[in-house]
């Protein structure tokens, strides 16, 4: 009899243990506590139709009285508004910057970007010309706004005097450190118009002087700075022309002496250049 009672107790204990294991097992859809998993977000709303688009079956109950159709108001129908005129805040779809009139004047002097009216008021034509200018010289965002960067770049280009580069005969690359511009001349004639550049920052100022292209490489590896320099043309020790590896118009930084160029300008200068091409660097970058 004692043996039978002992066996009964063992069986009852095993049953309790099995129930306990089942209750504490991790529910793959629960939170680990054994509680039921919460309904996924949005399921309740979708099932009830609260957030769903009504279907043809979701009709108003017949017991509900029909909503009377409102009678037309006797108020006169408003006339369509006229096309908005340009204002001091800008032309519709094109913001106006604080340097609107000055940028218009510089673009008119430079030419080649479309018709601009020098009146300090943004217009569709002005906006188009400013956007074209911004895209050409890598100014971001190119939204047509005459902001500080657009103003500065336009001023530098419009006030560059190519005659200050005493190139003489043959091909010459000219670098104006003061205005941060670059152009090319052949026998006194401009063959590549002034474009933007960024030269050495404080402590690494690009030296002025007369040099010659001594080395060229489509991709030059910079050992000290561990970066590729596309369209490399060396003219003074470790200093040379190359495509910029950062945003050119970030005025807080500069090169370590090299003459940084936008992609299209670096390619054009590469196509023109040869070993022995003369390079004239003059002026001084502001802040160096």
From TrEMBL:
One of its GO terms (biological process) is regulation of cell shape. Residues 45-58 have a biased composition (Polar residues). Residues 1-25 form the signal peptide. Residues 33-98 are annotated as: Disordered. GO terms for cellular component: extracellular region. InterPro entries: LD-transpeptidase (IPR050979), LD_TPept_cat_dom (IPR005490), Peptidoglycan-bd-like (IPR002477), PGBD-like_sf (IPR036365), PGBDSf (IPR036366), Transpep_catalytic_dom (IPR038063). Keywords: Cell shape, Cell wall biogenesis/degradation, Peptidoglycan synthesis, Signal, Transferase. This is L,D-TPase catalytic domain-containing protein. It comes from Micromonospora globispora.
